Structures are given as structure tokens and as C-alpha cells.
């Protein structure tokens, strides 16, 4: 913690994280209220985090309150073949999400308070696209929260993505107007969209047949759109309905799984 106190790259090299193969969980934390203007401007913060390269045995990574302009390049490397969980919190000066789609074992990804990010595009999936790429091949749960400037989550047809994703949470993205196509995410079971007031409707293609539960909270435009479409379908029923919350569940013979709004 308090990585802003690291004075030189020599200190980073002495930490020798890359060769400490016994470290499977790593948290890199800066002070929350740190004035990053000077640090981000002179490049020192970025150099520090670049030299904190962990061992390839890493399984769980958390980066908190990092104020640099870009996250470290090593975070995207597929050589982290055991990395299963990433949490990135309050990276307030980053304008792009890191490219994480090539991490072969990533199962859980949480992105919170990237307040400068306006667009999620192909860069999020892969840095360079090829037709045979499958982005995020093992990802099961994706949470995107408090991206206050996010306007578009763009569709990409250059790569396949999320073949194992079962839960998607999009919360507190008040400027969001479009999200990527969901109908091709064939394992998706639960979708939660919360406080995305400008999102007018679901993307073209609607919901995948694998879906079991769909939660809409504080999204008046989306609620109105889905009410008119899903309620005409015999596949769905409303299990809960208030002025700000809708929970739809698929009509199936097998046990229905309830969905709760993520805090």
C-alpha cells in the first residue's frame, strides 16, 4: 500500500516480485486522495508500476486508486496463465480499459470507477485482432461499475468473445447509450443493469436463450422498452416489479434461479 512513497526504481527492483513464485495474490494500492497531477505528469508512477511485474504464478490481482494515465503493459500478457481474478478500482486518469482478453484463465473481472473512459471497443478484447481469436476464453463474471463517462460499449465482429460468461453486471453508468450484442454470449444466465438512465433498449438480437434472470434497476427507458417486448413473450415473467426495479425470470421447467441487485 501507499505505493506513491516509492522513491526510485531501484526499490521496485529490490522487491523482485517477478521471481517470487510463491506470491499468488497481489494488491497494488495507492492513497485514495493522492494528488496525481505531478506523478502522472512526470511518468514516475507509470515507471513504478511497470517495474512491479509479478510472477507468472499470480492468480489474483487487485490494483486500487492508481492515478497514472495507463495501466502497466504487463497486465495484458497471456503468460499469466494462472491469473483467475482481476479487480481494478478507481483508476481515474485512465482513458482506455486495458486489453485483457488474451488472459487464458481469467474467470472474474471487476472494473470500478474508470471515470475518464468513454468508449469500450475492440482494444478491450485484444490489442491486435485475428479471425481465430477468442477473447476472454474463460471469463465467467464481469462487473462494470461507476464508469461515469462511459457512452458506448461498441460491438466488434472481428473477434469472438465471452464463450463462458454466465453473469454480467453493468451499474452506475449514467451516460451509457449502447452495449455490445448479447445474443452471441451463449452461456449468459444472469444480466443486471442498474442506474444506466440513458440506455434506451437492449442491443439488436435481444437476450440469448441461455438467460435465466434479467434485473433492471433505475433504468426508466430500458424498463419501458423491455416491458413492451419481454411481456409479450411467453418465455418470461415478472417475478418482482416496483417503480424502479424489474426482475424477469425465464419460464422453464427446471429450478428457476433468482437474481438480486448487486450492491
TrEMBL record:
Residues 2-113 form the R13L1/DRL21-like LRR repeat region domain. Coiled coil: none annotated. It comes from the Eukaryota. PANTHER family: DISEASE RESISTANCE RPP13-LIKE PROTEIN 1, LEUCINE-RICH REPEAT-CONTAINING PROTEIN 57. This is R13L1/DRL21-like LRR repeat region domain-containing protein. It comes from Opuntia streptacantha (Prickly pear cactus).
